[in-house]
Amino acid sequence: MGGRHEPERPMPLAIPPELIARLAGAQRIAVLTGAGISAESGIPTFRDALTGLWARYDPLQLATPEGFARDPALVWDWYAERRRRIAQVQPNLGHLALAQMEQRYPHFTLVTQNVDGLHQRAGSRTVIELHGNIGRVKCSRELTVVAAYAEGESPPRCPCGAWLRPDVVWFGELLPEQAMEQAEAAARNCEVFFTIGTSAEVYPAAELPMTARAAGAAVVEINPDKTPLTRHAHFVLHGPAGVVLPQLLARMPAAA
Question: What is the pTM of this model?
Answer without folding.
Answer: 0.90
